[in-house]
Amino acid sequence: MPVNLNAPQAHELLPVRGCRIGTAAAQIKKPGRKDLTLIEVSAGARVAASFTQNRFCAAPVTIAREHLQTSGGIRALLINTGNANAGTGEDGIRNARASCAAVAGHLGVAPRDVLPFSTGVIMEPLPLAKIATALPQCVAALGDDNWLDAANAIMTTDIVAKGISRQLDIDGQRITVTGIAKGSGMIHPNMATMLCFVATDAAVAQALLDSMLQRAVAQSFNAITVDGDTSTNDACVLIATGQSDAAEISDAAAPAAQNLQQVLNEVTRLLAQAIVRDGEGATKFMTIRVAQGRDQAECRRVAYAIAHSPLVKTAFFASDPNLGRLLAAIGYAGVSDLDVNGVQLYLGDLLVAERGGRSAGYDEARAQQYMRGAELDVNVLLGRGTAEETVWTCDFSYDYVKINAEYRS
What is the Cα–Cα distance from 271 to 183, expressed in whole angstroms? Predict the structure, then answer.
């Protein structure tokens, strides 16, 4: 089961003026479950997106990038699960375009005003006929209170839906931010096997919206890992419909922009952490904090060396305070001039290693007791500066192997 994570309730995911959502069961992989989501966006909305850096990016990623450059204004998003439409060559590109054209025909917009998103099995042809057949159901179901339906419909190996809403005041107007995400395995920055869709009714200038999303992604979806694999389909989309009565935000230094950025950061961070908490087979949620580094880059290298290590992750699954595995990961992280005698390692608030070895007061029984918890903090002090970074990850259990061994069956 996910680590201290429950699915949101429908009433907790607040409508966003200017967004309507409809879902349907296209039976792409599994019969009887909703696996197709349509998000209709009001005219005049601004849309920003961040995508995977995997060079084998999926066809929908290619088309979505193209449409963001050529559209006169994005009016719809189409998301399917069960099939990634990745590694499908020119046929995949044609099918992604065709899915956009199908949506455009139903909504009376241009195909380039539709963004496609897919997630699921790689190197299988997109079942375009099933999608086309189910689309009218999505259109008929369009409503502003269907965020939970969408959060469920975009899941693949996730156990629970992931969604969150927050509100803030701008110019005396109540502004809503609602986001949903999916992801459980093949999770690694730039970005991860994840999809995330966040909408707000604030009006935000395009350039500022782009930079707001990048800042939010940097401290959330680019700060998590489950298994170190970067997927082909990852995308995070931020929609600003401008349907509130608050004035447009265009200055990043303005209080309104800073307040909105803070809320966006919170929403994306909690969604990113939810992905890790629902990591495939996860039993532990681990926060890796590396501080006293010379710069953030080296802190992040050390944090990810720990978070990616299968030996560390399996030790944590066994509740085993195997300090040697942690020290080894710190040592091979690529900080070539690291003075190991200046490094301190903590499990929670327990100092367990310093001066190149176990701390003088190390207590194995206390360390084991701490490791039995479901929420674990690993704190590393490098002793060489003031920079710090935080990464979130989970353990490796027997179920991780089982889930991925049976993924295509």
Answer: 10
Report pLDDT digits (tens) over 208-267. Answer: 999 999 999 999 988 888 765 555 567 899 999 999 999 999 999 999 999 999 999 999
Instruction: Let me know if 241 is a catalytic residue.
Output: no
Nearest partner of 274 among 129, 174, 160, 165, judged by Cα: 160
* Long-range CB contacts (within 8 A, 24+) of 155-159: 155/81, 155/182, 156/81, 156/82, 156/119, 156/120, 156/182, 156/184, 157/184, 157/185, 157/280, 157/403, 157/407, 158/182, 158/183, 158/184, 158/278, 159/1, 159/2, 159/184, 159/278
CA dihedral 53, 55, 61, 67 (to 10 degrees): 90
Backbone phi, then psi, for 179, in 5-degree steps? -140, 150
Number of H helices, E strands in the chain: 11, 15
Catalytic one of 88, 157, 176, 193: 193
Other CB atoms within 10 Å distance of the CB of residue 212:
23
Cα R_g (the chain), whole angstroms:
22
Spatial distance between the Cα atoms of 178 and 197, rounded to a whole number of angstroms:
8
Q: What is the pLDDT of residues 355-364, one digit of tens each?
A: 999 999 999 9
